[in-house]
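ARCHIVE CARD
CATEGORY: sequence design from structure
SOURCE FIELD: tokenized fold
FIELD CONTENT:
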């Protein structure tokens, strides 16, 4: 997959024609979260924007994640949650996010969340306004970095909560994207590859 190609029109078409696999729940078994997979076109290079969480947040301290969070009672939908949280965390207004579609729900192993991911195109360049209570920094990764031909190893050892986990992960420079974020990205890439 050439890095110079930004696939947003192709991704929109794929997601419009594909029905996401949803995890059924009566809202008593799991907690629910909506996240945005923010894509942007950087001079023809399609990139994904991730956040590095602070060490003071309640869940997934210090991990790399998508903008998003827990569904609030006032949210009209999980998409509304993803857009609200994106604005709260990185300052991108919901009106400026072009939702390309939704992908399959993902269940977190540790915190018992069902994560509902949406793919959206955000403007670039953009003057991001980080919520410093939640977001330590931003990481911008070329989408092509997640394609199989660019991955040296997919499984990584991670120290978490006193345990060593052998888990799916994507290494980018000095950062390791793992956990639910890695599962969501892995699934997203598989969906794209299926339709290339």
């Amino acid at each position: 997959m050439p890095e110079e190609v930004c696939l947003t029109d192709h991704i929109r078409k794929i997601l419009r024609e594909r029905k996401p696999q949803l995890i059924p729940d009566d809202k008593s078994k799991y907690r629910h979260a909506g996240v945005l997979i923010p894509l942007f076109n950087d001079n023809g290079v399609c990139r994904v924007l991730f956040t590095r969480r602070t060490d003071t947040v309640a869940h997934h301290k210090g991990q790399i994640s998508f903008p998003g969070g827990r569904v609030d009672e006032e949210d009209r939908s999980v998409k509304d949650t993803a857009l609200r949280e994106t604005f709260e965390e990185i300052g991108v207004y919901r009106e400026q996010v072009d939702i390309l579609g939704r992908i399959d729900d993902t269940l977190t192993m540790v915190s018992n969340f069902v994560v509902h991911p949406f793919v959206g195109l955000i403007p670039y360049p953009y003057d991001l306004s980080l919520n410093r209570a939640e977001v330590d920094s931003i990481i911008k990764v070329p989408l092509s970095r997640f394609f199989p031909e660019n991955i040296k190893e997919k499984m990584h050892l991670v120290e978490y909560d006193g345990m060593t986990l052998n888990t799916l992960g994507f290494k980018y420079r000095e950062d390791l994207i793992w956990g639910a974020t890695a599962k969501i990205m892995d699934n997203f890439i598989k969906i794209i590859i299926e339709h290339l």
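CARD ANNOTATION: The chain has one domain: 8-146. The CA atoms of residues 110 and 161 lie 10 Å apart.
SHELF: design records, drawer C
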